[in-house]
Amino acid sequence: PRHGVDYVLDIILWFKKFRPPHRATLSVRRHAYVQQTFGEIEAISEEEHLKVLKSASEYYSNMTDEEQHEAAINANDSKRVHLLMPLRGRSTTFKRFCENMLEVLPPSEKDIELVLILYKSDNESDDMSIRKEAQALSAVLDVRIVDMGESEFSRGKALTMGSEVLSPDSLMFFTDVDMLFTYATIERIRTNTILGTQVYFPIVFSEFAP
Question: Looking at the whole model, is its pTM more than 0.70?
Fold first, then answer.
């Protein structure tokens, strides 16, 4: 979204007529379009920041196109991506997620961490299966479990707790257990996210399987 988050409200309004002899209750359907803006644009100018940008510009201007491309790739590769996933139960879906990660991640990739914010479910075997799959996945990437115990599941609270165990400058990607993506997604997150300047808002689509 370019300007903010768009909502479409499907509203049914009920009207009652009390004047005899036509007393009746009528329903009218209306749609309301609401936009929650990201906020006003704020320009910040810092002398030291400008010096760094100028220095970087001069550094890259002395490079060939091939050298600039290689430097950009190396810079993106150095960004560690933290995948934050709230989870309660759904061991089968989590197994599918782990299998997908094992399939798409190259062996050379070492800068990805899964932060699993785990709630205890009503099924003990389900919880054990999740921890077993997480243990198997840890052979390929770092896995950190934030134990939420038996508290009520809340995605917002889970993401907040997961964020708090990381440093403020960490590159975080909020994901769900039923979301599948390729390694190219990780690369786009690194490329399109600039600390203190730019965020990356990927658009997720759903596939319907009847």
Answer: no
DSSP percent split of the chain into helix, strand, coil, nearest 5: 35, 30, 35
For residue 38, how many C-alpha atoms fall within 13 Å in the half-sphere facing its CB?
Answer: 9
Angstrom distances, CA of residue 120 to CA of 33, 89, 126, 133, 140: 38, 7, 9, 15, 25
Based on the structure, what is the number of domains in the chain? 2
CATH number for 118 = 3.90.550.10
Question: Of 182, 164, 165, nearest to 109 (Cα)?
Answer: 182
Those residues whose C-beta lies under 8 Å from the C-beta of residue 189, and which sit 6 or more positions away, are 81, 171, 173, 200, 202
Count of beta carbons in the 10 Å neighbourhood of residue 146: 16
Q: Is pLDDT above 60 for 44? A: yes
Residue 68's pLDDT is: 57
DSSP states of 75-114 as a string?
A: HHHTPPEEEEEEEES-HHHHHHHHHHHHHHS-TT---EEE
pLDDT at 18: 75
pLDDT in tens, 158-189: 999 999 999 888 899 999 998 888 888 888 88
Q: How far apart are CA 184 and CA 190, in angstroms?
A: 10
Residues of the domain holding 136:
80-192
